[in-house]
Amino acid sequence: xxxxxxxxxxxxxxKKAEDVVEEHEDAILAGIDRLADLVDDRTxxxxxRQIDDVADxxxxxxxxxADEGEKPKPKPKPKPKxxxGGTKRPAPRGKRPA
Length: 98
Fold this sequence. Notes:
single chain, mainly alpha, elongated
């Protein structure tokens, strides 16, 4: 398996994750809330702030994945060709454009 194959497989996996999250976003968010409440109850509120922070970060990730699943992917910009001029020479001293 080459690097290109691995990159392609990871891209496919990400797309599948985006599709699943987009389809089940509400259930995933409810699960995060239930889990946060369970952990908070088990720790008797000692770590409520940290638990809420982690739950909020998880919800942000879910929202981001769901949004990415909805958007069409932008086309990659073509890479510039090597060795083909294309660079401008600097203007001579004293004659720089304003």
